[in-house]
Each structure stands twice: as C-alpha cells, then as structure tokens.
C-alpha cells in the first residue's frame, strides 16, 4: 500500500521544535564525551495551521483520521525536506461563517 502525502497548504511562521538526542558521560577535569543516541537522533515536530471552508477542513480531518496518529504520511517541511510524519492532535476550531482553523503538530516518524 502506498504512503499518502499531505498536500494541503499550511500557514507558515510557526516555530518548529528540533532536538538532538545525545548521550553524555562526564569525567574528571571537566572532560565530557557526547555521542548521538541512535542512527535517527534528530527529533523534530512542526506546528501546522490550515484555514478554510468546512468542506476543506473535513477533507483534511478525514486524511488525518485515516492515519489515526499512528500511520505515517509524507509531508514537506518548511525547508523543503520531504519526510515521514505522524499527527496525534488535530483540532478543528470554528471561526464563524463556515470557516474553520485546523491546528495540529506533525512529528517526524522513521521507517523500521
């Protein structure tokens, strides 16, 4: 089964959360040794916002519901990097007049 791609435009300007998992050991005289924790030690997540009419937001929610927070999908980051992501927290917010704002966080996923 092919991996689906999230293709809806998202608003820009949100700050991503990027962290590197590092294991550290401290020794005498202030010496410390650091090493990356695993082959995929970069953890990144991106807050996204989509605004649109109810039908558009329903399509996006149907996409996210199909993935149910566990199945990864393709998405291109603001820096233009295509990667696998999951979304566990979508929130459609009614703005009035049939317009909704959907907020969510896309978290990096890795294939085994």
UniProtKB/TrEMBL annotation:
This protein's name: Phage tail protein
Superkingdom to which the source organism belongs: Bacteria
Organismal lineage: Bacteria, Pseudomonadati, Pseudomonadota, Gammaproteobacteria, Pseudomonadales
A UniProt-annotated Pfam family: Phage_min_tail
